[in-house]
Amino acid sequence: MEKLRVGVVGVGSVVREIYQYLYFRSDFTPILDIVAVADPNDEFREWFCDTYNIPPPRRYRDYKEMFAQNELDVAQINTPDHIHAAPAIDALKAGMDVVVPKPTASTVKDTHAMIQTARETGRLLGVDFHKREDPRFKEAEARYQSGRYGRFQAGVWYMLDKLLVADPNHSPRFFASPDFAERNTPISFLTVHACDALIKVVDLKPVEVRATGFSHKMPSLSPIPIKGYDVVDTEIVFDNGGVAHIFAGWHLPNTAHALTVQSSRMICSEGMFDIGLDTPGLHEIHPDGIFEINPLFRNFEKDGMVTGYGISSPGRLFQKILADRNGTLTPEMRDQMMTATALGFYTSLVLEGAEESLRKGKEIAEGVTRGIAIDLKALLARELGQSALAEYGY
Ligand SMILES: NC(=O)c1ccc[n+]([C@@H]2O[C@H](COP(=O)([O-])OP(=O)(O)OC[C@H]3O[C@@H](n4cnc5c(N)ncnc54)[C@H](O)[C@@H]3O)[C@@H](O)[C@H]2O)c1
Questions:
Q1: Range 56-78 average pLDDT
Q2: Averaged over 143-170, what is the pLDDT?
Q3: Which CATH number is 135-296+363-391 given?
Q4: Residue 342: closest CA among 168, 119, 163
């Protein structure tokens, strides 16, 4: 087999920002046949299908009809986080492999159900946490794990988006789903990226989280206000006692020098390292303003091709799925793809823990919620039962 027959479920913002280039203008385009598309949002479905010549009979509102009426090898599930599990599980049960954008799902229960179904059906599940393919994190991972810096003690990370991402009043609206910013949080949209990258570098298990949320800008948006947080500090304690604070928010002025302003500093027993996410290399002074361009993420090349880790991360998942279907994926590579860490389990645990921390917290000043400490082992036992503890190494 030379091409994977792909059914795309959901063609909103992540497809506009990243996957349309993966599918049609990347080094991975030759292995992807975008057969059919399902999305109940008429505007986005028709935009995508008209742009890329998906014929009307293969445009669906309901993914179940698409699965039933097409021969597909892979489903890519680009729906909001809380709608990842049902289509992913349906696809796996129908014999497809599945790729989802981060996070795996919005709850530990959903994430576990997706992992279990993949294991039971023998199909592959791939989660696109694109920072995993960022060369800066790959270098940091190799160096940290060689013992060069000693033991991880403390880390501070931040990821702050421009307000236009969360603001439903901004035109054009960033998200296809009108309620995205209200149903999601900076934790589910941003903290999870940093959390997964951090776990990849230090290879440790999170044991406790506590979040503090600030809600000043979101409720002031007009005419549509958002009931939610501008920025959240998620404190994560790891099983070696190391502590990380991840500040994630989506309320930076739209004049910011990049869509996402971000960085990280890691302090260890034998040294420290900074990952200069904020200074990716191309600094631009232009009549429109001053910008930091990140060609490592998305490199729009002169010939129209798009490269970068935003593309190669999902692209490699598809490559491995194709290799598996052709019988050339080694058992070791298959096993590596299907570990709990690779499938984003610990990040889902941090996500659910941090959101629960805020829900159970109290207001300590106007618009500031101090969350309670959440024991992640207890959360896991409550959500999945005692038997799941050993399975996930607790
Ligand atoms: N937007 C980004 O830049 C970005 C980047 C990385 C990861 N992600 C992740 O991508 C996923 C999608 O986010 P988004 O930003 O594209 O949201 P979005 O709201 O812009 O798009 C989601 C799309 O899914 C569609 N959808 C909802 N229910 C559906 C169903 N049952 N069947 C088919 N389609 C359905 C919606 O109509 C919408 O078009 C989320 O998990 C998000 O965390 C987004």
A1: 98
A2: 98
A3: 3.30.360.10
A4: 119
* Residue in 9, 13, 17, 37 to alter for ligand 1 test, most ligand atoms within 8 A of Cβ: 13
Residues of the chain with CATH 3.30.360.10: 135-296+363-391
Counting atoms of ligand 1 from 1, which one is nearest the CA of 192?
43
Rounded Cα–Cα distance for residues 239 and 219 (Å): 37
Say whether pLDDT at 242 is over 90. yes
Cα angle 295, 124, 55 (rounded to 5 degrees) comes to 70
- What pLDDT was estimated at residue 123? 98
Topology classification of domain 4-130+303-328: Rossmann fold (3.40.50)
Is the Cβ atom of 38 under 6 angstroms away from ligand 1? Answer: yes
Q: What is the pLDDT of residue 281?
A: 86
Which atom of ligand 1 lies nearest, measured to the CA of 176?
20
Which pLDDT value is given to residue 201? Answer: 97
Measured distance between the N- and C-terminal CA atoms of the chain, rounded to whole angstroms: 41
Report the nearest atom of ligand 1 relative to the CA of 175.
Answer: 20
Q: What is the pLDDT of residue 6?
A: 98
Distance between alpha carbon 343 and the CA centroid of its chain, in Å? 11
Six token digits for residue 297 = 């993420």
Using one digit for the tens of pLDDT, what is the confidence trace for 114-129?
A: 999 999 999 999 999 9
